[in-house]
Amino acid sequence: MRPFAFERAPDLAAAQRVVALSASSRAETVPAMLLAGGTTLLDLMKLDVLRPERVVDINALAGRFGGVAAEPAGLRLGALARMAQVADDAGVRRDYPVIAESLALAASAQLRNMASLGGNVLQRTRCSYFRDVSHAACNKRNPGSGCAALGGCNRQHAVLGTSDHCIATYPGDFAQALVALDAVVEIEGPQGARRLPFAGLHRLPGDRPDEETVLRPGEIIAGFLVPAGPWARRSRYVKVRDRESYAFAAASAAVALDLDGDRVREARIALGGVATIPWRAREAEAALAGQVLDEAGAERAAAAAFREARTHGDNDHKPELGRRTLVRALLEAARMEI
Question: The FAD-binding PCMH-type domain covers which part of the protein (predicted)?
């Protein structure tokens, strides 16, 4: 790890100045970066992928941007709330189980105790070519250099939302739950506060994979609003991975259902481990609307979800794995007692 200066931001304005300074450079060496739990930042600093000259602790803002609040209109989650705190919250487990499950299945207990929700949704890809600086060709790390994964080892890489410039998979779990529940992200910036659908936070790679979100210079995530709805309690997160714990998803599905008997009034589906961003599977949702949710119906929806999948050799198995994961999640959610 390279030397850096460490300080603490006493208030939001100080934190925003750091973010604006950091956003002024796309180079690996940036003037400053924010620290909450540090579970991604410090990891990438040790790998020499990120080289901030200054690291600024923002945990003094937890009183304003932490906590969990459940109201009749929905659930508010502070960006500085810890993953373990939210996963263990009784109200979240009862009324928004897909959120609790997505957090409980992520990382290790030690990391969940440290990691913040805001940092979690902004975590960087686990693509080995991004994380290993000996590989020069990585458009996320070194714009315009190429994508080594396209012709390299890409077993864990994306099959949805890819481009000719990047096939790196979005690695998180919690984001899929937010997408499936139509959450809103609260953002604080120099021009004031704004809100946008969480599904619009992350950018598809296109020809600029290094531009990962729509956050503007000086903006930070303040929290998340999850609206209440008849689908929230009948929700599941299913994660398939190479080992039972402490591994990233090979494929995952966040599912929320509103049922009339065995017939689907509305389905909300997001996929993980298979796409470049948290992926809303609207084609699968449309295939289920008004239909009986049995195994055949779930398989039709899963086929629709992966109809546009594009594989790259080592990850040719991913569409089938993703389909089976989604079928399992749909059928498990349908059987839930609420």
Answer: 1-231
